[in-house]
Amino acid sequence: QVPLVESGGGLVQAGGSLSLSCAASGRTVSSHRMGWFRQAPGKEREFVAAISLSGGTTYYADSVKGRFTISRDNAKNTVSLQMNSLKPEDTAVYYCAADIKYCVGRRCYVGELSYDYWGQGTQVTVSS
Predict the structure, then answer these.
(1) pLDDT tens for residues 12-68?
(2) Closest to 12 measured CA to CA, from 77, 71, 69, 92
(3) CA 24 to mean position of chain CA atoms
(4) Residues 6+ apart with CB under 8 A from 5
(5) How confident is the model at residue 93 (pLDDT cuts 50, 70, 90)?
(6) Cα–Cα dist 17/3, whole Å
(7) Which of 30, 49, 73, 78 gets the highest tally of CB atoms within 10 A of its CB?
């Protein structure tokens, strides 16, 4: 198991910023592909952003590109998601995900099935 714990969610006005953090215990994030997903009420969970083991490659959903930034700090065993220019449609529960299996290419990062380990989620609410 790779327990993942998200933090940093909350309520913010449209146009504001939040920074989410995902902390892992028991394993090191440096050996895992890491991703963020979100699920809005009544909708399916969707891909938000992902980062490679080294941090050298990142992927973003079109809806957040240019506004969100994913990063990792392997020394602190954490992955972060900086969210700027937030919109009401960004309101959702945000989940951190991790996987250790070797996999190359975008498909390895954007699909839920590419990840074996998940956090419990943190609520982000953006008011208009």
Answers:
(1) 999 999 999 999 887 788 889 999 999 999 999 999 999 999 889 999 999 999 999
(2) 92
(3) 13
(4) 22, 23, 24, 25, 96, 119, 120
(5) very high
(6) 26
(7) 49
